[in-house]
Amino acid sequence: MKSELLLLIAVSLCVHSKPLSGTAKRTFNKLLLISFDGFRWNYDEDVDTPNMDALVKEGVKAKYITPPMITMTSPSHFTTITGRWIEDHGVVHNMMFNSTSLLKLTHKATLKRSEWWDNGALPLWITAQNQGLKTASFFYPGGGANYSGQAVDRSLVEAFDHPDDNETEWRQNIDTVMDWFTKEDFDFVTLYYGEPDNVGHMVGPETNERRKIIAQIDRTIGYLREAIQKNSLANSLNVIITSDHGMTTIKKNPDVKEIKLSEYMNFLTLTHFDLLDYGGFGMIRPRKGQEQAVYDALKNAHPNLTVYKKEEIPENFHFAKNSRIQDIVLIGDLGFNLNSRFIFYVNKGDHGFSNEEMDMKTIFRAFGPDFKKNYLSEPFNSISIYPLMCKLLGVKPAPNNGSLSDTEGMLLENFDACGRIHISVSLLTIMTLLSSLI
Ligand SMILES: *[C@@H]1O[C@H](CO)[C@@H](O)[C@H](O)[C@H]1NC(C)=O
Ligand SMILES: *[C@@H]1O[C@H](CO)[C@@H](O)[C@H](O)[C@H]1NC(C)=O
Ligand SMILES: *[C@@H]1O[C@H](CO)[C@@H](O)[C@H](O)[C@H]1NC(C)=O
Ligand SMILES: *[C@@H]1O[C@H](CO)[C@@H](O)[C@H](O)[C@H]1NC(C)=O
Ligand SMILES: *[C@@H]1O[C@H](CO)[C@@H](O)[C@H](O)[C@H]1NC(C)=O
Ligand SMILES: [Zn+2]
User: b/e string for 247-278 if b means 16 or more Cβ within 10 A?
Assistant: First the structure.
């Protein structure tokens, strides 16, 4: 009797955040994952961000999080949504390429190319759908592809000429997502914004333009908070705000000697294919028999260039074991872009550098009915967002490389208890029924 009373009290404690359905099945709250591309971990420190500050009190903030090596948009976003290292999920670059045929496609051209994304690791959209949930992707990288023949229930893909910074459109997209949750009962939605990455590249991270776009993002987060209230979702929607990598200022002549690889080797005679001129990470496929020649030419060429043969890539980078990784891999020291034959002075800021560099670290914020308030999390690897999302949604995770122990401390203490109690309640019902029959 006493334990039943305790149970009743516990149930009523849980009920305010988790409506008990008539059945024994526990209901889980909805989840919105938002990514602001290229949001360096400390971008909110030199701008007034009242809404992000309020979220610190209302929810969870990680000091910073560490993206996977390779700190690029598609590889990192796909690690977040699959919980898999890049060598496992196979999206090893923003560009889709074939080092035999020399095909290269830009990031936007890959967005509907399933053969680039669908390499065996199932993203959370598909795993959740297979377990009965309804999911959607609003511009999130990978959301436009099919996986084992399955499409995401609702998917919008960015057009080639999509502007990154239109604040009116940003708000409309939030309205759309709110409708998906309220009118169409979606359980899990991913929403992507191309800023502050775009500004960070164009003018560099240490600029007023970057501070202005952070203020715009903060207003958008304020709009989101209001929209959640207006749509009565405050008690049933969890929100995670994160990003894929940071940004650093590119070092230029005459401050440093820039890296231009053609100064050290002959591309024409030594290389078959290269992926360079794309930030701090690059790959080369030498011509047959020229592997050692390329390696020798570059190994000690420039003090700020690190060269690996594929088999030398450190294990803890977790990207070597994939056939898309080429024989020679290059990484520049922070701020040293890997230029091949010319130096294109387009980008003032860039990424792709080691994920150990503070400038490559990114943000993690979360709030909603299942999160603790005013909780400062220690840094963790972005790969551990995946098991957290599965837990929040009540989805049995696909095989993954994340650690729930990194992230579950930010959930309310009674998160699991509420789940157990629902089962106990059904047991109780059965027992009561049984005893009334006897
Ligand atoms: C790459 O191109 C080669 C030559 O055209 C082709 O044989 C191969 O199948 C392609 N690889 C992939 C993964 O598409
Ligand atoms: C995904 O599959 C659907 C149904 O088979 C098809 O209509 C659609 O074109 C496919 N999309 C991609 C990106 O391959
Ligand atoms: C911004 O988006 C709104 C709503 O989609 C649109 O009406 C407006 O023309 C856009 N502004 C610019 C400068 O593209
Ligand atoms: C570039 O290399 C020099 C010489 O080894 C070193 O002193 C400097 O710290 C390096 N720069 C970066 C950003 O690592
Ligand atoms: C990552 O997870 C996959 C799937 O469980 C597994 O096959 C792989 O070995 C893991 N990678 C590491 C480095 O543990
Ligand atoms: Zn990015």
Answer: bbbbbeeeeeebbbbeebbeeeebbbbbbbbb
Cβ-based neighbours of 240, under 8 Å, separated by 6 or more: 31, 32, 33, 34, 364, 365, 366, 385, 388, 389
| Alpha carbons 309 and 330: distance in angstroms, whole number | 9
> Which residues are near ligand 6, the ion (C-beta closer than 5 Å)?
37-38, 73, 197, 244
End-to-end CA distance of the chain: 19
Q: Which domains does the chain have, with CATH numbers?
A: 30-247+355-420 (3.40.720.10), 259-346 (3.30.1360.180)
Q: H helices within 96-249, ranges in order? A: 107-110, 114-117, 124-130, 167-183, 197-203, 208-230
Q: DSSP string covering 149-169, please? A: TBPPSEEE---TT--S--HHH
Distance of alpha carbon 85 from alpha carbon 305, whole angstroms: 24
Asked if residue 239 lies in contact with residue 34, where contact means CB atoms within 8 angstroms, the answer is yes
CA 244-119-132 angle, 5° bins: 80
Ligand nearest to the CA of 250: 4
Ligand showing the shortest atom-to-Cα distance for residue 171:
3
C-beta of 172 in contact with ligand 3 (< 6 A): yes
**Average pLDDT per 10 consecutive residues for the chain, totaling 438 residues:** 44 44 70 98 98 98 98 98 98 98 97 98 98 98 98 97 97 98 98 98 98 98 98 98 98 96 98 97 98 98 98 97 98 98 91 98 98 98 98 98 97 80 51 56
Task: Find out whether 125 and 152 touch, Cβ atoms under 8 Å.
Answer: yes
- Chain-centre distance of CA 120, in angstroms? 18
